[in-house]
Amino acid sequence: MNALQFSVIFSDIVLTILIAWYFWFAPKAQTRVAVSASGAQEVAITVKGGYTPDVIIVQKGRPVRLTFTRQESSACSEKVLFPDFNQNASLPEGEQVTLEFTPEKSGEFGFQCQMGMLRGKLIVEEG
Ligand SMILES: [Cu+2]
After folding, report:
1. How far is the CA of 125 from the centre of ligand 1 (A)?
2. Which of these, 51, 88, 89, 94, has the minimum number of CB atoms within 10 Å of its CB?
3. CA 66 to CA 100: how far, in whole Å?
4. Across residues 92-121, what is the average pLDDT?
């Protein structure tokens, strides 16, 4: 193996590792939600092959208003569930659907599609 072959193979390996790291370990998009003038914490979430953003940070004891817009027709994402808050909603394609509830305890709470394939996380912090 000459130096050129070595460097091509070596850079291939490095690139592969970087791509794997990016998909498996890179931090997901986090959104820390500001409290609006109405006192609610409002977030718009796009549903398309997943939830964007998928990590949402809110404060305890203030209403959370999550507006989902589903931009795909895949049956997988037609419902969203927040089991810890007894909330769920159907998401017709292209329509805005708002879920509103007030988290009364802090912690990390998952949300997901009805099959659990798409997942996100609501992080509730002490206010
Ligand atoms: Cu699903």
Report:
1. 27
2. 94
3. 6
4. 97
25 Cα–ligand 1 center, Å: 22
Q: Where is average pLDDT lowest: 22-31, 67-76, 85-94?
A: 22-31
- pLDDT confidence bin for 78, thresholds 50/70/90: very high
- Domain borders along the chain are 30-125
- Tell me if 66 sits within 8 A of 45, measured CB to CB: yes
- List the one residue out of 70, 56, 71 whose CA is nearest residue 101: 56
Residue 26 has pLDDT above 60, yes or no: no
How close is the Cα of 81 to the center of ligand 1, in Å?
Answer: 10
